[in-house]
Amino acid sequence: MKTTLYFSTIIFATIIAFSGCKKDDQDNEQPTITLNSPVDGQVIIAGTDTSIICLNAVFSDNVQLKQYKINIHNAAGHGHKSTLTGWDTTIIQSLDGKSQIVDFDIDLSHFNIADTAHYHYMVYCLDQAGNESMVYRTIEIIWPGKK
Length: 147
Prior knowledge:
- This protein is mainly β.
- It has 1 helix and 8 strands, in the order H-E-E-E-E-E-E-E-E.
- A 5-stranded mixed beta sheet has the order 2-8-7-4-5, with no helix packed on it. Strands 1-3-6 form a 3-stranded antiparallel beta sheet, with no helix packed on it.
């Protein structure tokens, strides 16, 4: 009886010890964004050969990327939480793997932008676990003949 109790205790202790050593598979790390273009302060003149905003970015994650989002909106007097007036556009694209280089052009000739103004060019990245990161640049869009 003592032997059975002794071995039962050893087996129970071993099970408890190894079950407590379970590896944490949770992905809590945000993806990274290296935004090469556009550069902060870049001027885009609409209606010309330079009316294309070029995104060049490297997205990376320790486990798995999911998507990126570009949001461009008027930068005038806001904290990114209020309803904005003026031109605003959002583009969402899928990503795959742990690292991806993205070149994406936005041709402003397809949009009706009312004002020459400074705009925030926001780039977000989301991984499969739902972790998100964000970077932004302030760019100026000039519409000849508009103030």
